[in-house]
Amino acid sequence: MANLLLITVILINFFTLGSARLVACIRAVAVQGALLSLLPLVAHGMSGHALILGTGALIFKGILIPWLLLRAIREARIRREVEPYIGFVATLVLGALVTAGAFIFADFLPLAQEHHEGLFVPAALATMFSGFLLLITRRKAITQVLGYLMLENGIFIFSVLLSVAIPLMVEAGILLDLLVSVFVMGIVLNQINREFSTLNTERLTALKE
Amino acid sequence: MIGRIALQLTVLLLFAPLPLGVINKTKALFAGRIGPPLLQPYYDLARLWRKGFVFSRTTTWVFLTGPVVGLVVPLLAVQLLPFGGLQAPISFTGDLILFVYLFGLSRFFTAIAALDTGSSFEGMGAAREVTFSCLAEPTLLFSLLVLARSADSLSLGALLGPQLANQWLTEIGASLGLIVVCLFVVLLVENSRIPFDDPNTHLELTMIHEVMVLDHSGPALGMILYGAALKLMVMSALLVRIVLPLQTGSLFLDLLVFLLGLMGLAVLIGMVESTMARLSLPRVPQVLVGTMLLSVFALVLVLR
Amino acid sequence: MMWLVGSILLTSLAGVPGLFYRREGSGGERFACGLILAGCGSGLIAVALTLLSDNVIQFAIPWSMPGGVLALRLDAITAAFLLPLFLVVATGAVYGLGYWPQHNNPGNGRNLRLFYGLISGAMILLLSARNGVLFLMAWEIMALAGFFLIITEEHKEEVRRAGFIYLIATHTGTLALFALFALLGHNSESLLFPDMGTLPAAGSSLIFLLGLFGFGMKAGLMPMHIWLPGAHAAAPSHASALLSGIMIKTGIYGLVRMTSFFTEIPAWWGWTLLILGAISGIFGVALAIAQHDIKRLLAYHSVENIGIITLGLGLALLGRSYNQPALVLLGLSGCLLHVVNHALFKSLLFLSAGSVIHAVGSREIDHFGGLLKRQRWTGLYFLGGAVAISGLPPFNGFVSEWLIYLGAFQPIHHPGSSLSFALLTAPALAVIGVLALACFVKIFGISFLGEPRSSGAAKAHEAPRTMLWPMGFLLLACIWIGLLPTSLRPLLERAATDWSGNLTLPKLTGNLAPLSAISVAGWLVLGLLLFIGWLLHRQSAQASRDIGTWGCGYQFPAMRMQYTSSSFADSLVRLFRFGLWSKRHGGQVRGLFPGREEFSSHTPDLVLDRALTPAFTGLAWLFRWLRSLIQNGIAAIYLLYIALTLIVLLTLLLR
Amino acid sequence: MLLLLILFPLAMAGLAMLLPWYQGRSWLLPISGGLHLLLSALCVTESGAVLGIWIGLDALSKLVLIVISLLYFGCAIYAVGYLNLRRDRGNKAIVPYLLVFLSTMTLAISARHFGLLWVAVEATTIASAPLIYYNCNRLSIEATWKYLLLCSVGIALAMLGILFIAYAALVGGAVPVNLHIDSLLSGATNLSRPWLHAGFVFLLVGFGTKMGLAPLHTWKPDAYGEAPGMVGALLAGGLTSVAFLAILRVMQLMSAAGDGAMARQALLGMGLLSLLIAAIFMVRQPDIKRLLAYSSVEHMGILAIGVGIGGLATFGAMLHLVNNALTKGCLFLSAGNIQRGYDSKQLSKVHGAIATLPISGSLFLAGFLAIAGSPPFGLFISEFTILRGIFGSGQIWVGLLMLALLAMIFIGMGATVLSATQGGPVKVDNQFKDSFLLVVSPIMFLFLVLMLGVYLPESLQTALREAAELLEVHP
Q: How far is A164 from chain D (nearest CA, A)?
């Protein structure tokens, strides 16, 4: 059950890497967040702790932040294409590579016996690296926020493994950090938009040697 | 010691101009002339001493230091040198360096005295003098090293000691022969003889030493000529001693041998001057460098 | 001890009170000069106490600093360097009153005096320091103070460039010294200097190389001399005198001190020093001949003399590795004596050159000429310095070169050994000597004799007394060492004994090195010269002086027809064409009736202008390219760097 | 007391937001800075380590705390003078953010729990972003954006690293896992190695981004270049030290687990790389503030090398941390003055600074000599001690390489600084002058560095030694 979720998450990674339409990407990431919010419940059954975590994830990852991003798009009236530095096919190939790498890397790390059958670690790493890939290969500032979001999703997957072992505050920390940083990024995005009337980061290359 | 010094000085002061006369006589004979009398240099000096001075208004007191140093240096240098069999009046470790540097002193002052006149010709002469001497100096040093090695000592007196006689017969003889050649070349350069310089040319552009003293007159010129003669004699003494290291013991005989050697050298110089043409200036450095290599070779021979 | 500390404090703080005086007032400079004189006086007392009594002054108090101890020691080697320091510093301070008066230089006069005092104090400290940290600190303070002395006239472009090159050079050297002392002290906690002859030489080659680089950079040994000509030319003359006379000697001091630590010396150390010394000597003087800026010329002569000093040190090292006391004694005493001598006559030359520049307002030799008539005293002092630096008897330069010659001749007593190659030192010294002579004939003749070559030279005036007396004092010191070298014998012998550790050395007398004979010869030369000169002068007193120089038939000689420095140097520069690559301009006479023709030549520095500058330009270009590549402003690429770092570290650490 | 130290700046920030009076708002900074300095001095002088469960002070954090507090106080004084010049931009935003920044830094220093440490570091990022954005022009937006993006990614990686370490404990068999530093240290030996190593790497990269080790330094020149001088000083002297402290915590963990050697290797490598990068970027650098940014990269590299060598070098690194923070303060503040005075930070406009702004120009030159490690400034002692450590540990080639790079850096930095400071005065059409408030704190910093160069108090030495020993723990 958990693995099924995780497989879907990884598939969503590929979808995001491959899709050319910005709104679709945002929606995909939102769906990913929503799915992840189920993960604690699936992993640890119905516990209060897991409930809180799940709802928190749902609110932030699934609803609030995607909404923020969509609003930013609407305000900026930017074109809907993603404009990668390198082509979609290449991105997909790279995504496949990093996912494979994540799986190989996961084998180095010994798991606690209760997680043996789970795909948590590889899925987490794969999502994280995909997020990284998104950050690196996309032009728009907003896509980079998206990549960052996906990165955080990966971390969230991993943190689910530990959600019983360590106090609540760390997850709280994640969510808070996610909110705040994305919020601040949102503000900066607005400023950028006002100054440059675009969200393409290639305008943001004045500072160089 | 005082006696020796006095003897050395008198011999030097008496006989110094004579070789010049001999040289000129030889040249005259080679040219088929009668030539000036042997004692002509003495007459010239006497005449110059009676004359008065004429100074350019450009000159300063430096102008007079040239003749003075040129005269004083040989007088001191000769005390470090054995005349033939009679041994050197003063002799201490490392006096050979002093010997070399005393002549450096005279070169310095002759050159700046020449520059004191502000004439471009004399400047040219000074430039050439210092240039050629810096090629001749290492040769002299190498030759002295060879002698010092073979005598295992650092004072001229011991270098030119009686041991030279049988060293000619040992394997050192070869390098001795080489350095005799080198020292002869150095002698010609330092005393501005043909083929390096022509003392009695009348074309200033070709002169080296003579052009530096163009402006001197009267007793100052006399002192310069006399100083040149003394220098010639001192350096010839070095050469003569190496070639004729006879040691008869009796003072008179030794002196005689030495003077004969001196005259022989003068005749040799005369022959060279009358058979060779003056080298063109660019060729001079090549010849000097060649001589230097020769002396290096000699040094290698004694050191192996 | 208190005398030494007092001199350090007095000199280093000499310039401070001046800061509180008015900008135009002359009170501050008098005060500073007085403090410096007092400091030098007490320092001289300290040195005298050490030399007269056989015990060495030393003390050490703890210092709250990792590895630091305030340890001072004044032994014979230090004394040999301190003696000229005090003389030069004191004379320079007095000279400064006339040469750089506050009321003419309200802007930079105070800084100049501040750093002049600071550098003096720092040098005294570093010469007597016995702790790595303390030494390095004094070393760098000296270097920085020197930098500020050099950039006194920082509004000039050339001065700034010279200062920058100096700063780079000295700091690079200092970094090498960091490594040197870190290596020296990595087994001891306190970084105190080890005692003489205690360290094993095994495995200390790196230490030697670092020292050679760091100290050689400061001393201006040939490949590392890049900073020297520009810096000495740029600084005010009495500062140049201090830099060239004393500061570069601290490099020599470092080498001497460092080599004294080791028990046995590998032979290649000595050979390296000999080769470097010969190179610096010959090429230094050759480059000097080719210069036409009087201070650059003198600066290159510093390179030459450092070469001579290094030859002496190299001989001494060889003596230690081949275990020959005579060679050690002659080499080291020659080295140290030449350090003293060069300090004296080089500062004398710089000071008199300063008074010429002061009078004519130019540094170009070709703008001088006929100055002896207008500056009779300056001219006399310069002549004395020239004779001394050319190593001619009866002045001091000859004595030290003579000692080194004797050292170079020592190997004749041991034929067949590889030591014989050291004999080649003698001809090298001969070449250096003759070239130096030629160079000083040129500079004295062109600038002081003949007719004035520029209007400035024509209306030159004699310098004020405050500038003349210091020069006279220095000249007297030169003559003193030249005529009474035996007075320094105890100092030299003690220094050599301290340095050579366990060897028992002979004395500088008898058939090893009869200094007394040299002094007798000196007296003779001087006496005879004066006597005959006096005769000739008396005879020529009433001779006529109203005619022109004999122009060899040419009727209308003009000043422009005099030999210039370029033309004088030309024949020699051509001899060294292979190593100098001088640039010659004009001089070709064309046509049947040739027109006006100029000839001039200039010679850029071998290492700096021909090797380093192009190399650095290329490097800078490469770096700029790399920069635009790495820091290209695209955030995504920056993220890529992070990802790559992550991956690399993971693959490296998770094996 | 420590809690007070963290909380009262927040209160002050609230006060600043309410206060309507411009001058008063500016003066809140030095007041709270001085108060903070006072309190932290009290905390530090308290004998022994104050160790709570969540927050506390050990020798390391005491050292960093006092340095940061000192630096902040100086910058706060400067800020008053600076904000008076910037009426155009106002201080309604920047003063509260500066105060929050102080509080977050203090929290990060005193955190005894990895989670808390992480949250605090994240908070510093967010609190400092508006400071960089102060000038509100395109360039400052760009700088802020890059800073935010890179540091957030870094911090996310650090998060993962912490989770890995937690998982290492889990696999090691500790239930419930807790991330309190002390308990982790005590149980370090039975952490699962692969997870620990992976966690170390992620934490190194994460906090390394914050600290600015090459090649994670790329945000530095932009942020430092565009931020006001005092902010640059706080970032380069303060924030980097905090991030370094975070890395040192991980080092503690690694060496407690017996893998100190591996961690040292990584630090050493990154340190040397940082020196190389700094050297490449400093040669002919035409912008004085970017120059300082790269110099900060360089000195982070030196710190990393010092800790990477260990032993005596660690002691040197601790001393270097103090010196670097103070000197950077002096340099950035004087560079800020010069930029104000010339309306530019490009060499094309800036030259003859000593003639134009006598005090700031001289301070800039002196600061350069200090940062280059010339005696008698403190950095000489620290760098020399690090070198002694290196050569003592027998890694001679590391030492020589470091020296060569330092020489190259000196050449590059010297060329820029000298041509900026030397030369005749330049006429600039603004009436900026060195005023007391703008020069007093750089002078104070420089004086302190000079003092540390000629006299290192015994108490400070013991403090440094204790701090160094915390990193030398062995299982």
A: 8
D375 and C141 within 8 Å at the Cβ level: the answer is: yes
pLDDT above 90 (res B65): yes
Task: Answer whether D141 sits within 8 Å of A165, measured CB to CB.
Answer: no
3-state secondary structure D354-402: HHHCHHHHHHHHHHHHHHCCCCCCHHHHHHHHHHHHHHHCCCHHHHHHH
Which residues 43-62 of B are in CB contact (within 8 Å) with C?
52-62
Q: Which residues contact D128 (CB under 8 A, 6 or more apart)?
A: D97, D101, D147, D231, D234, D235, D239
- Write out chain C residues lying below 8 Å of A207, CB-based: 633
Cα–Cα distances (Å) from D361 to D354, D355, D422, in that order, read 4, 8, 9
DSSP-based three-state secondary structure for A21? strand
* B215-261: pLDDT as tens digits: 888 899 999 999 999 999 999 999 999 998 888 878 888 889 999 99
Contact D148 A188 (CB under 8 A): yes
Specify whether D281 is located in the same domain as D245.
Answer: no
Interchain CB distance below 8 Å, C405 and B97: yes
- Number of structural domains (chain D) is 2
- Binding partners of A (≥3 Cβ pairs within 8 A): C, D
| Helix H or strand E encompassing D230 | helix D229-233
> C555 pLDDT band (50/70/90 cuts)?
low
Q: Is residue D413 part of a domain?
A: yes
SS3 labels along C54-93: CCCEEEEEECCCCCCEEEEEECHHHHHHHHHHHHHHHHHH
Tell me the residue length of chain A: 209
Domain limit, last residue, from D207, D226, D258: D258
pLDDT tens-digit map of C487-511: 999 999 999 998 987 788 888 887 7
Neighbours of B, requiring at least 3 CB pairs below 8 Å, are: C
Give the pLDDT confidence of C302-353 residue by residue, as tens digits.
999 999 999 999 999 999 999 899 999 999 999 999 999 999 999 999 999 9
- Closest residue on chain A to D180 (Cα): A166
Q: Residues 481-500, chain C: which have Cβ within 8 Å of A?
A: none
- D101 and D245 in a single domain? The answer is yes
What are D59-110's pLDDT values in tens digits?
A: 899 999 999 999 999 999 999 999 988 888 888 888 999 999 999 999 999 9
Touching check for C412 and chain D: CB below 8 Å? Answer: no
**Same domain, yes or no: D243 and D322:** no
Task: Please check whether residue A108 touches C, CB under 8 A.
Answer: yes
Question: Nearest CA to C458 among C550, C351, C359, C376?
Answer: C359
- ipTM of this model? 0.91
Q: Which residue has the tokens 């070789």?
A: B19
With respect to residue D406, please indicate whether it lies within any of the assigned structural domains. yes
Structural domain for D61, as ranges: 1-258
Say yes or no to pLDDT of C188 above 90.
no
What single DSSP character describes residue C609?
I
Residue at D263 is within a domain: no
Under the banding of pLDDT at 50, 70 and 90, the label for residue A180 is low
First-to-final CA distance of chain B = 38
Q: Is D99 within the bounds of a domain? A: yes
Put simply, the answer to whether A155 touches D221 (Cβ < 8 Å) is no
Same domain, D189 and D225: yes
A135:C654 CB<8 A: no
Domain termination site, one of D235, D258, D281: D258
Co-location of D76 and D223 in the same domain: yes
Beta-carbon contacts of residue C435 (< 8 Å; ≥ 6 apart) = B134, C282, C285, C286, C289, C572
Minimal CA separation from B123 to chain C, in Å: 6
Smallest Cα distance from C443 to chain B, Å: 10
For chains C and D, count residue pairs whose Cβ atoms are closer than 8 Å. Answer: 158
Contact C650 A105 (CB under 8 A): yes
